[in-house]
Amino acid sequence: MALVRWDPARELDAFQGDMNRLFDGFFGRRDAGGSGYGSRRWVPAMDLVETDDSLILRADLPGVRREDVSIEVKDGVLTVAGERRVDHEEKREGYHRVERSFGRFLRSLELPKGVEAESVNASMEEGVLEVRIPKPAESKATRIEVGGEKRTIEHQPAEERELAAAGSDSES
Question: What is the C-alpha separation between 84 and 69, in angstroms, rounded?
Answer without folding.
Answer: 9
